[in-house]
Write a structure and sequence with these properties.
- 2 copies of one chain form a homodimer.
- Chain A is built from 12 helices and 8 strands.
- With 351 residues, chain A is of the alpha/beta class.
- Chain A has 2 domains: 247 residues, Alpha/Beta hydrolase fold, catalytic domain (Rossmann fold), CATH 3.40.50; 85 residues, Rna Polymerase Sigma Factor, Chain: A (Orthogonal Bundle).
- In chain A, strands 1-2-4-3-5-6-7-8 form an 8-stranded mixed sheet, sandwiched between helices.
- At the A-B interface, helix 5, helix 6 and helix 7 of A face helix 5, helix 6 and helix 7 of B.
């Protein structure tokens, strides 16, 4: 454990911590005193039927959603909805390798699965607020994987679901990409099997990870058209160092590792002995499957195949040149307008 | 310099060496006694108008083309054509970092550009055989980059050109990917700034490079459908270790580095002060631009954009699920049938 200068209330807050208690993970280990970092906007109504849950992506925190996905007059409107944004286990704010004291912290922190997150979130949502129905569960990338798991695992509870730029089952290529990120980090000699003092020791490995994200996270066309110029960068090297490296170097390597392990193994068919059609067939929510058109990590074809297996669903492709990292709204208003349109229409359905 | 157990006549031969002599590179250094490794099939006719030149890809050698791209009764038919297959500088068979003696070898080996290769090949083709016209220049990936350079630099000489799965200008994403390969290799502590004894010292770095190729070289769909099973592998890990790692670990890290530097900088518009339209406008060859449908490194869109700027050209997309590494014919007969069809039709044109 160490005191990070990044995973702080100043940078990612305000957020609260929900004490899930001792939590037995699917892989058999127990996290003692599991805490979920979350934040809410809006008010839960008397009928408790206006709650929305938003789940985070790989190494992301709730702050980004709060700044860019939620707002008065938008689809995710805190004037209408009680919006709970929750940080996944291991993301640096919720219980994570770097912030866990004692023998079970850092490199000994246990493997966590998407289903663990969803079970812990379920406990929070039901026990803390007594919510019995969620008007919507949504999230991008790994948040999408949590969204799918929610819809499959708690079909009576999830009225609507919006998996954005993510699949219900991590594909082999996506998992292989994620493993190259692990390799990039752990090959830094200063990673030292996870026995480092702070993330700053592993800066070389973290920069190596950031470089892989540049190659794989954006579409070829976005890079070719030098769209990073609009963000104020003078060259791709400038963008790499002062944006991508700046994003990744403050993060904790073991937290990333924990999220990556989870990402590599997302699979809703674990609920149905490997039968994906049966898993998705369980879903009662109205589902808008929302891939990004140029996403190479979670390609439209993979998302469309899952959508076809989902009873009450529609495919809503988001037109964006930015590739997977279009999730960050690099296309600006055009991206968020589409997001709001689709989410607004989804929320207007009976669910 | 060291004696490689991989870059040998046994494995890659038979091949001959052409002595280009002392060769001044575009970046200003001289390779003394530059040798191009090449092999020919078929006979040069009396009119010397039946010669075809085939150029190699990144870390590839002529052997693969000879085994899989050329054959009696096929488009590249040695009964009809005099087929010269030539190894690019730095590929391990032609003069390369690992096989260069003295102070200018290994890590001190100079940077080489695509245009250097093409100038050296031109010298060989004209001086050794007195060839004035090439019926066809073709090649995949970096071989495509050489093909484009040939067509732009020697427009009177190249009658037909078939750039396969490659562009005339390396795109930013493609260059960024190539840099991650460099980083994967050089981050192995045993790479030691290039001061290693043999490639075997750098096996960890080479395996890291091989893992990146798996992620980026194949299409998501090819991996998802587990097409590697047809090649006799039992899992993606088995495929990684016993195919991809087996491909890359015998190679020389500095040879790869040399090819990668060249790849990152391919740009025919260097012939025309950065004006790509002017460069491609120079071409007199009949050109079939042949991207692979699922290629993420040299996407169809980029190839099509260059084709549009090329006067006497057609876009011939090769339908293959395998992504860029479809070049290796992972789709089997279906791939080679398309290749032969397009090349056959190209060779049947007046050029």
């Amino acid at each position: 454990m160490y005191q990070s200068d990044y995973y702080t209330q100043d940078i990612h807050g305000p957020y609260d911590l929900y004490d899930v208690g001792d939590f037995v993970l699917e892989e058999g280990m127990t996290i003692r005193g599991l805490q979920l970092a979350y934040h809410t906007q809006g008010e839960l109504n008397a009928a408790k039927d206006n709650a929305i849950l938003i789940c985070t992506w790989y190494c992301g925190t709730t702050k980004f959603y709060e700044q860019y996905y939620i707002g008065k007059g938008r689809a995710l409107d805190p004037d209408k909805y009680f919006i709970i944004v929750v940080n996944q286990i291991g993301n640096g704010l919720s219980t994570s390798p770097h912030n866990t004291q004692g023998a079970g912290g850092m490199a000994a922190f246990p493997h966590v699965r998407i289903s663990d997150d969803v079970r812990a979130q379920h406990k929070m949502v039901t026990e803390k607020w007594g919510i019995k129905k969620l008007a919507l569960v949504a999230g991008g990338s790994m948040g999408s994987e949590q969204t799918w798991e929610w819809a499959v695992r708690y079909p009576e509870m999830v009225q609507r679901a919006a998996p954005i730029a993510g699949t219900a089952v991590t594909t082999p290529q996506c998992a292989a990409f994620s493993r190259t990120l692990d390799e990039a980090r752990t090959s830094d000699p200063n990673f030292n099997g996870g026995n480092y003092k702070t993330n700053h020791d592993v800066e070389i490995g973290l920069r190596r990870e950031a470089a892989l994200w540049t190659v794989f996270g954006f579409s070829p066309e976005w890079l070719k058209q030098e769209k990073w110029r609009a963000l104020g960068f003078s060259s791709i090297e400038d963008f790499q160092v002062n944006f991508m490296d700046a994003c990744f170097t403050p993060m904790d390597p073991l937290d990333l590792q924990n999220n990556a392990w989870k990402w590599q193994r997302a699979d809703v068919s674990r609920n149905t002995n490997g039968d994906l059609a049966a898993a998705l067939g369980r879903i009662k929510a109205k589902v808008f499957v929302m891939p990004i058109a140029t996403d190479h990590l979670f390609p439209v074809a993979d998302c469309a195949a899952e959508q076809k297996l989902t009873p009450n669903s529609e495919l809503r492709v988001i037109d964006s040149l930015a590739g997977h990292l279009g999730l960050f709204g690099f296309d600006g208003k055009a991206y968020f307008d589409q997001l709001d349109k689709h989410l607004g229409e989804l929320l207007a359905t009976r669910g």
